[in-house]
Specification:
The chain is α+β, with helices and mostly antiparallel strands. It has a domain of 120 residues: Elongation Factor Tu (Ef-tu), domain 3. It has a six-stranded antiparallel beta sheet. β1 and β2 form a beta hairpin.
Length: 307
Amino acid sequence: FQADSHLRWFNQLGSEVKRDSDAVTANNFECLQDRDTCRVLIKEWQCATVESPIEIGLESEIVIGSNLGDLAWDLLYSCVLGARVGHTCEVDWQPDYADSHIGSPPVERFRAEILVTCLVSMATSYAELDPDSRLQLAELHKTRGNNYFRSGQLGAAILNYNRALAYCLLPGSLATTPASSVSDWSADSRLRSLSRLIRQNMAGLQLAAKPNCNPEFVIANCDAALVKAIDDADPADMLAKRFYRRGCAQLALGQLDLAQTNLARAASLAPTDRAVSARLAEVEAGLKRSEARLASGMKAMFSPGKR
């Protein structure tokens, strides 16, 4: 979740609690995670388009992640997920922030103060879940992310993709951090495969967030989506999407040589895909123009001047 500067936690004495990596670590038992049962008190909820899912000012018991597909509940979960008992989560997303950050919620303005009063019961930790259970939960959140993506609610989509990814990665890995090595991935090939698919979708989502696309984010997710992809025999069309999206991001950064390499690889995997062919032609034309400008500059540099 990428709204760190607009998501702050406070303890019961009013002192600000800094959000650190421990707050979103998969096997941190002190912080709230999916399927935990807790009691919360909503002190404030300001949103013109989405009403609070529970009564404001009344302490209520919730199960994190239990109400699937409801945007109001998703906003509530995004506030308390990773918090600890006694913390007040203060959220303030402004329209200009929501317009420029893919991690912001799909609402024009959202402000809330929510106190976590107690932890009623803990769900089975990520570390204790068997691969089948983790796969089922990851698929569930991925599907929700896909549905939000299709409806254009990109903030809600990325939030659900992050949760899905947390079930796929080994305990202790951060769901929001692209895998840097093979050791960050689960030993279960099904979870590895699903992780790569989620990364692929996250890259596509970021590309769709025009004009606020973050090319580095796209490249990082495509890199992770290609880890062991050949060894695990991922389908050619999936590989093509990853190379294509990485090439598009490199093109946006002006890295034409790298973009050509990745788009050519995508074209070899999906030779009938017109979008891939068109983007590859665009890059190759750009390279020719660059070469022509360079040749012209060199000629002017070494040509004898007029006398």
